[in-house]
Fold:
Amino acid sequence: MAWLRAFFDFFAGDLRADGIVPARGHTAWLVFFAAATMAFLAVFALAIAVAAGRLANTWSQEMAQSVTVIVDGPQDQRQAQTDAALRVLETTEGVASARALTPQEQRDLLSPWFGDEIPIENLAIPQLIEVIPAPQGFDAEGLVLRLQGEAPNARFDDHSAWRDPLVRSARGLRILAAASLVLILATAAAIVSLGAKASLAGNFKTISVLRRIGAKDAFIAKVFVRRFTLRTLTGAGAGALIATITVAFLPSAAATAGFLTGIGFTGLGWLLPLMMPLLFALIAFAATRTAALRLLQELT
Amino acid sequence: MIQLEAASYRYDDTPLLSDMSFGIAPGSFHFLTGPSGAGKSTLLKLLYAELLPTSGQVTLFGQPAHGMDRDQVALLRRRVGLVHQDCAFLDHLTISQNICLPLTVSGKSVTDDFAELLAWVGLGHRADAFPPELSGGERQRAALARALIMAPELVLADEPTGNVDWEMSQRIMTLLLELNKMGTTVLIATHDLNLIRTAKSQVSTRVLRIKDGHVQLAEVDL
Structure:
């Protein structure tokens, strides 16, 4: 529990020690606004990373749980071929269920592209059969061969042709968002470190006096580290809060099922943005402490 | 308490202090004198480890100055009270906060002795004033109070009466003499010979004079 006490002592501070270094100068505002801006961007990068990850999972796992059999060919053979394909599917081990989509369901699938008034009956649209595999899966190659024998106009589609590139894209986007997050955090660390160095250099006289009367480097560094950590925490808290509210008010994914409108968090994922100020504070603590101890040796 | 053995100091390639060998015993009263630029302040800095000798050895409270890390230097300075000519106060803090600064950096609490100390240096009524509001004499006495707040074993004063009139310099001198009578070792760097004569009439003192970069024991009739 010693670390917990040290943690609380750090945030509680020491009024006498805190007052030694005057709280003034442009670095205070610089650090606050930089932390707020970086945290705002970081929450967005995090939201994109989370959404991309969610999308990749959906495309790679949930959609892998369903396959489609497409029955094409002459219109007068369509129903017979569909029935034959359904018979094959019903007798295939590892297929939980198979059913032909109704004309209305097929119209619903096409309406986002062609509108609601599409005369589906007059178009040469193939019949789709939705196949839900059982948990243990089925022998896809065997099914293809059997379909070729029993229903030659039926094609098996496991969606991999369009799913795999999308999954790769989603994973790439997630890596890009994560890399952006790392860069944002590194930039925040650099800004806080520069601010701390400027503040230390600007308080050279104070530091010299403190060293002469017996202050250890750790004591002097703590005054600066605490100040910059709290400034960063406050700034990052404000930035993260504004970003979280903004993300919350983005159009929801459920409404349109589109990726661009699906950026956000779900469930416990909403706790992630709240972690951002703490992460920024930790980074500020490490960056300021390193900069302060190094600069103190150079200054005095 | 302090021992120098063949200690020298040079700025870049220019020798400033050469081959100094002397000791400062506990409870003693020393003056360090010499013309301006002779190296008095430099020698004082060697005695609180702000500078290290470029050759020879300086031993402070039994520890070689060269072997100390920064934390050990900080702990050493808590045993030494420093009074500078420029006082070196933090102007945004009150005089009482400035005087208590050594306690703050050491993590110690202010005791009842603080009020006595303020009264002793005649600043009881100025505790809440800020440094720029004080006269030169008041600042010097406040600097002395800050040097004494940790009850140091050694007081090093660099021209403590340099910015004050004769009457005030006598008052500060009296305080330092009282302090020495209470057992504190005192070393004062000054070029004010009248001050030295005043002290010599009241306590046993040693006068060290810097001449041509060497430290000599000066004669009584300065």
About this structure: Chain A has eleven helices and four strands. Residues 4 and 10 of chain A are 10 Å apart (CA to CA). Chain A has two domains: 15-60+164-299, 67-158.
